[in-house]
Amino acid sequence: MSTASLQNYRVLETPKEIKSFRKVACHPMPYPYAVFFCHYDEDSSETRVFKVSMIGENTKDKVDAAAVCHMDSASAALLNLTDKQGKSPMCHFFSAGDLIWVQ
C-alpha cells in the first residue's frame, strides 16, 4: 500500500459520485494487529461518496481519494465540525488505511 505524502493537493476534475444505497465505512484502530471500527448510516441517502482525482503540489503525484459528504450534518457527531450548525453538508476525505465499502 502506498501513502500520499503530506503536501497540498489540487483537485484535477469535478469529483465523481459513487452512487450506492449501502455504504460501510471502516477506520483502523491502534492495536498490534488489524482491527477496524466500522459504521454505517441508517438513512443512506444522507451520505454521498465521491472519487476525487488530485495532484500533489510538490511531487506531482496523482492520487485518487475517497471523499464522504454527510448531507444532513445535524447529527450530534457532526455538529461541531461545520459552521452552519447542521444546515450545510459536511465533507471529508478518507485517510490512508480507511476503507469504504459500497454496494
UniProtKB/TrEMBL annotation:
Highest taxon, organism lineage: Eukaryota
Stored InterPro entries: BURP (IPR044816), BURP_dom (IPR004873)
Stretches assigned to coiled coil: none
Record gene name: LOC18607328
Name of the molecule in the record: BURP domain protein USPL1
Domain BURP: 1-103
